[in-house]
Amino acid sequence: MSKESYEKFKMIAVIIPFFIALNNIKHIEGTILQVPSHQRIDCSPKPGANKADCLSHGCIWDDKEYADQSVPLCYFPAETGYTVVEKLQTSLKLNKAKSGAQNPYGENLPELTVEIKNSYSVINIRIGVQGRYEPTIFLPRTCSDTKQHLLIETTNESEIFAFRIRRKTSGELIWDTSIGGLLFSDQYIQIATLLPSDKIYGFGENVHLSLKHKFANYTTWPMFARDQAPDPENPQRNLYGVHPFYLGLEKDNNAHGVLIWNSNPQEVTTGPGPHLVYRTIGGILDITFFPGPKAEQVIQQYHEYIGRPFLPAYFALGFQFCRYGYRNLSEMKDAIGRIQKAGIPIDVAYADIDYMERYKDFTIGKEYWSDLKEYSEELHKKGMHLILIFDPAVQVNYPTFQRAIEKNASFIEWESYDEVPQEIQDKYPLAKQTKIMLSVVWPDWHVAFPDFLDPKPMTAEWWIDEFKNFHKMVPFDGIWIDMNEPAAFGTNEYHPFYFDDPERPVRIAPLQCAFNGAKSKYDNPLYETWNTYAYNFAESHLSNKTICMSGLTNRGSQRVYDTKNLYGLAEMILTQKAQHAATGKRGAIISRSTFVSSGHYGGHWLGDNSARWIDLKASIIGIQEFNLFGIPYVGADICGFNGKASEELCLRWQQLGAFYPFSRNHNERNEPDQDPSQWPDVAKAAKQANFFRYYYLPYLYSLLFDVALHGGTVIRPVFFEFTSDSQTHDLGEQFMWGSAMMIIPVYQQHATSVSGYLPFTTTWYSLRESDYGTLAKPGRSIFSAKKNELIPVFVRGGAIVVRQKPNTTTTASRNNPLELLITVDSDKSTGQLYWDDGESIVQNFSTYNYFHWFFEFVISADKATLYITQKHTAKDLVVPPIDVIDVIGYHYHPQLNEVSLNQKRIKVNSHRSYYDSLKNQLLIVKTGLVNLEIKKKQKVSWRHQKIFCDSNNC
Predict the structure, then answer these.
(1) What is the mean pLDDT of residues 597-620?
(2) Rounded to whole angstroms, how far apart are CA atoms 646 and 750?
(3) pLDDT band at 950 (very low <50, low <70, confident <90, very high)
(4) Which of 341, 318, 309 is nearest to 665 (CA)?
(5) Is the pLDDT of residue 2 over 70?
(6) What letters, b where the CB count within 10 A reaches 16 and e where it falls short, cover 177-208?
(7) What does R_g of the chain's alpha carbons equal in angstroms?
(8) pLDDT one-digit tens code per residue, 299-327
(9) Is 844 helix (H, G, I), strand (E, B) or coil?
């Protein structure tokens, strides 16, 4: 490396030598001729690139024909960007480069500021201009010191600006923007980077058919909240939420995370460099790097930074059932009754918009749903719960809207009165003299969209009051919020689909947005991103299926163009407050649209999927990704929402769905019933799978409790636990519950077995009844998966898992005694349990009333000892005792007549306690064996003798 190359980049902290990425680019007499086809940044990402346009922007046109048709033919010269004009300790001043390619979608801003902040282990880089839009949602932006540090290198004055992020311990580059391509116009911002490897996970919300992003081709993933059903056959579409975050693995298997905090329409292109290009059409670049170095640590750091996940009520971990299209309450009762009659555990009944009077929020259909309150009370008597749906849009000619106007609540509105379509507005006395933007959704008449970002308290107060008053009419237990991208019907269309709906009493005009004139820049920007191009390029706009980008939010101070992606999150924040105020309990919020930090307020279901095998498989990836995003309470509609579910598909989906944190069967109106009781075999499979789930709910709840305290994943990709095993890096079709349990779903039709992989570095034991406790062979194996048996589930050696004898509701189950499952790997096993009342509101964990225990099982030559340490103590909280200790993989002969508790001999149940030397399983049973409410450290121990085993019993 030359001295000039070495001096080109200077670190704020420590200088580390490196090679310039631009060495790959061929020069002749200082003129760039070619950038390799695998490292290009597209100069014409909009469809329809041509040579004349390309060259007019100063970009390079390649006339070659490539087998890979994704290769950009029009691309930026490598040194495109900004020049450093001033370099301070924690900031830089940049000027638009005097030469090089132009921004193809607007003039680059003449000056930019780069601000660099080190916060313990996290690096934050902000590139932009003061006064530009930034999301107003609060983030904690805190991060504990992990002793793992990242370093930043930046170019010197007079050089084209670039920065690199490097891991201090290994010197590995995790971001390298010397690839070029920094652009910053008002409505087109771009940054590109080389990556340390192609092992990138995250970005969303999209359907990804593999857990790891594929880098063989150039692939663009749009991110813009849209009412768009997931379709694995058309995966490169933007769905309901926006999560510009990814986790990356480096060559030495260290992990890092990157968040780009921006709420405008945006996209990311992955390329075979490996590299990525990020584009947005508003705001600034606010990029945060998380050092890990373990994958789970990256996610914990990210969750601490954005707000750790909420803790759902215990009942919300039970099985839930819903369908859209109940004609009356009797049909809902019948469906729930069928499930109960089949003996299938179930906790929650849902009512979709059918229960409302003509689909208006905070109303009850008088003719067919008048007894909903009584039914809710009936469910409560059975230990069950009720969750209701609410949409954000409110019809503008009924009492809910009138109360909003009287309380001065804010709604999304036009900027000026001359934009208001008076022929629509004048039909509604309450909206007539306002600028409120009216649109169409489910109700019969026009609707308005609450401004959930209102900085004043009036909108929040009105929204919360509506829930409090409605709870008096129907005592619901949780809230399901839908259509909150926000969705609108028929926008910009002249014959929307609902004109042909015979159920609608009148045809009402859809919303029309402006594509010409001074304000058209918001609804018709120069670059609309692949959030529109992924659909009908000629006709699609950002405002399709939603409201106009020119609209105003934040009580008239900000544009929908900037804030639309925040709408669902803002509604979640206020709705969680409404849930707490109305019920006085924690409950659970489920939202369709999500953004960064949504998991702090509620959960998510994966939307209006279809009854297809490919959708079942895609959900396995989806639940893992949303755990990365900080929304561990997640699941897909079991058996599929759209389309007719087959018996076999529903059976396999019920088996998989029993392992979703949010486990709900839901389907569309006009489709056949798909509650599991419709088919005898499905009912048996659902009963078996749900009872298994309920058996292990204390473990699942403890996982959710732990991530609420510390951040992290509940549904965990396998590579998180076994990163050194490269076979796990793209192993997306199976997943873990925490660190202990491995689930291998069946996702193929007509299967009687399933291929799965068990990492080599630990032991694995089956948890299925048919081969319970059997030691499984590590590596790739074919496992039996008949329809009448649970899908393969394994527990890792060295774990202690708390479980509980199940009943048909969580309410009944919580009264049953607890059990400890101990799996032996070496000489020590560990685990933990959290326990609370399952329903109280958590304002602050430092003052919250809960128990936390840590379990440690230690084996010595002549004795086994279980230590129970109470880490956090609660008051006036009843905890079931431990009645059973089940040890598997135990190669010792125990002396069951010498079991002691806290050094006092106890008598175990001799009829139920035993040791099976063939299975290497020890079972100790005694009613009230361990009282967990005792504060002092407790110890259960017994003497044993080593069994010298052979291949038949080891």
Answers:
(1) 99
(2) 12
(3) low
(4) 318
(5) no
(6) bbbbbbbbbbbbbbbbbbbbbbbbbbbbbbbb
(7) 29
(8) 999 999 999 999 999 999 999 999 999 99
(9) coil
CA torsion 574-575-580-581 (nearest 10°) is: 70
* Distinct helix (H) and strand (E) counts, the chain: 18, 54
| pLDDT surpasses 90 at 827 | no
pLDDT digits (tens, 9 = 90+) for 401-414: 999 999 999 999 99
Whether 335 has a pLDDT exceeding 90, the answer reads: yes
Distance, CA of 409 to CA of 64 (rounded, Å): 59
* CA torsion, ordered 529, 535, 536, 541, to nearest 10 deg: -50
pLDDT at 120: 79
Ranges 62-66, 339-343, 674-678: which has the least confidence: 62-66
DSSP string for 279-338: EESSS-EEEEEE--SSHHHHHHHHHHHH-PPP---GGGGS-EE--TT-SSHHHHHHHHHH
Residue 258 dihedral angles phi and psi, to the nearest 5°: -135, 125
Single-letter code of the amino acid located at 147: K
- Average pLDDT for residues 229-252, to the nearest whole number? 98
Torsion of CA 893, 896, 900, 906, to 10 degrees: 180
Q: How far is the C-alpha of 74 from the C-alpha of 35, rounded, in Å?
A: 11
Helix (H) or strand (E) holding 716: strand 715-716
Q: Which of 859, 797, 805 is nearest to 831 (CA)?
A: 797
CA pair distance 701, 714, nearest whole angstrom: 9
Question: In 10 A of CB 936, how many CB atoms?
Answer: 9
Closest CA to 595 of 236, 301, 260, 189: 260
- Per-residue burial over 661-671, b if 16 or more Cβ lie within 10 Å, else e, is bbbbbbbbeeb
In this predicted structure, what is the pLDDT of residue 34?
Answer: 76
Q: Pairing state of beta strands 150-155 and 664-665?
A: unpaired
For the beta carbon of residue 709, count every other beta carbon within 10 angstroms. 18
Dist. CA 122–CA 144, nearest whole Å: 9
Indicate which residues carry an active-site annotation: 482, 485
pLDDT exceeds 60 at position 26: no
Q: In whole angstroms, how far apart are CA 339 and each of 320, 384, 480, 548, 772?
A: 10, 13, 21, 44, 27
Task: Express each pLDDT in 243-284 by its tens digit.
Answer: 999 999 999 999 999 999 999 999 999 999 999 999 999 999
Contact, 394 vs 360, CB < 8 A? Answer: yes
Q: Which residues pair with 868 in a beta bridge?
A: 855, 938
Consecutive H or E run containing 302 = helix 295-306
> What is the chain's percent helix, strand, coil content, to nearest 5?
20, 25, 50
**DSSP 8-state class, residue 864:** E
406 three-class SS: helix
Of 293, 345, 337, 290, nearest to 317 (Cα)? 345
* Cα 167 from chain centre: 27
CA gap 457, 721 in Å, rounded: 45
Average pLDDT over residues 734-758: 99
Distance, CA of 831 to CA of 800 (rounded, Å): 4
Count of CB atoms situated within 10 Å of the CB of 90: 10
CA distance linking residue 41 with residue 504, whole number of Å = 49
Write down all domains in the chain, each with its CATH number in brackets: 11-19+79-293 (2.60.40.1760), 393-584 (3.20.20.80), 817-946 (2.60.40.1180)
Contacts 24+ apart (CB under 8 A), 845-849: 845/708, 845/709, 849/874, 849/875, 849/876, 849/877
pLDDT of residue 28: 33
Report pTM: 0.96
3-class DSSP string for 771-839? HCCCEECCEEEEEECCCCCCCCEEEECCEEEEEECCCCCHHHHCCCCEEEEEECCCCEEEEEEEECCCC
| Separation CA 877–CA 838 (nearest Å) | 11
Q: Tell me what pLDDT residue 99 has.
A: 83
- Beta strands per DSSP E along 35-149: 60-61, 74-75, 82-87, 91-96, 111-119, 122-128
CA distance 703 to 715: 9
